[in-house]
Fold:
Amino acid sequence: MALKERLQELRDRGLADISRSENLTRINEIRVQLLGKKGPITEALRGLRELSAEERPQVGSFANQIRDELATAIEERRNELEAASRAAQLNAEAIDVTLPGTPVAQGQPHVIQRIIDQLEDMFIGMGYQVVDGPEVEDDHHNFEMMNLPKDHPARDMQDTFYLTPELLMRTHTSPNQARAMENHDFNKGPLKMVSPGRVYRRDTDDATHSHQFHQVEGLVVDKHVTMGDLKGTLELVAANLFGDEFDVRLRPSYFPFTEPSVEADITCFNCMGKGCAVCKYTGWIEVLGAGMVHPNVLQMAGVDPSIYGGFAFGLGPDRFAMLKYGVTDIRNFYLNDTRFLTQFYQRG
Ligand code: 2NL
Structure:
């Protein structure tokens, strides 16, 4: 067969093979087979020697043209196959962003923190400031300024974690309030504050005692503050935390830092005042202590008790949470057992 026909046939077969090739391996094979050193084109070019001088350039250029044509066809087919393979890979690895995700377990504030937050929100709404402070306190702010001199029975070593003779773990949040009174400029208006936080007592833990618990104290100091203001405020606390139908009653009591001192009861949540075992048939449950700030406390904080007076209260969010949710062992709040804590999670 003439060289030219042979080249033509090589081209037709080559182009057919190229367009039929299904993958990159095959197209590489075809390239090596057709255009390689031992391939038929190279072989055919060697046959040029046998042609006449007239025919040689003509057939030679035809051979080159066919070689270029095949090389171009191979390149195009390779690009096609590469694009198809990339498209197939992208398709296989595609992520459907509209599929629902795997839910991530999400935490919520501790039930005691939630009660503290709720109280803070309510008091902020009434113009109070929230004041934080250190858990390690000095004797002066924790006791002395609260009208608890060194020989006072409430300072019994049994009840306090002392770090040094002068430093201790605060037994209440009152030292924050003592500092606030010291720093407050009463010409600019009344002092209205709440101080929430952890407090410590040297107690043996049991169902109703924890050596570390929480306190939210409130303090209002101004001219003409009355016990009626205190009672009204406590009624709002009860309504906010428990509900509108809860009433407050005050009973005489004693605290070194208030005079007079009261204990506040709220309507028994179990019998709504009718009398039951929970309230020992009184219809009332004791929830907090309060009173009118003792003149000595004002005096020691640099506030003139002949001009200013105030009320103060201290409540335990731990106890509130126990009453509200019927928890009978305070230690549950401090075990970090999520099976217990998630019971109090709010929806939404
Ligand atoms: C309770 C109830 C109470 C206070 C805390 C207080 C603070 C200042 C002045 C006067 Cl700065 N009082 N706080 C008052 C009454 C009761 O806590 O059961 N405590 C053991």
